[in-house]
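# nightly structure sweep
# worker-07 picked up a monomer target from the shared queue
# config: single-sequence mode, recycle default, output format = structure tokens
# input follows
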Amino acid sequence: MRILITGASKGIGAAIAAEVIHDASALMLVARSEDLLHNVKEKIATLNSECEISVFAGDVAEESDVEKLITEVNSNYSGLDALINCAGFAIPATSVQETTPDIWKEMFRVNVFSAYLMTRASIPLLSKSDSPSIVNIGSTAGISARPGWSAYAASKAAMVNFSNTMAEELKPYGIRVHCLAPGRTATELRRVLAPDEDQSTIMQPDAVARVTRFLIGPDADVISGQTIQVRL
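# output follows
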């Protein structure tokens, strides 16, 4: 299986890479930090010695970077079986009065626009697969009220609806689309957002990764278009 993961340099994205590599013939890790991507590659390479792992340092919310990435993927692998949109951005709780327009724009640029660009550009590659799928990493913040997190919650709500809409729109291409909505997860980002939280008491990234692995597999074809909550 040829799998591409955005936001793969740390947190949930890195955990997904470590999980899905077991099913992968080719794994493409994408994020802005090349050094962090190579760290992830080094850690997971021994999990499947037959998988070809490549890294791409770029901003998937920039059209030019996405075009370069897709060209590289097509050149190296001639197609794609699974796209996992995990790139994300968040800031500590901030009232709507204190949330600047620039922060609001950046939240949607990273959390939603990147998924649009990647989905749009990947359709020709996914269409070559016998069982193509897209998993968009949303959040439970996108399906319930989150005072202090209006920009983040709104962007994740947009991801939920984008995913559900794509599930219908991409049916003619045979592409399954799922939105995975994790609750509180013990990541580096979560530590910044909630520094006083005991991360041993909340969900670990590998729990999200295991569900993601299921969703890109053949048994998840009956739940395409659904938003799957994963939380303790």
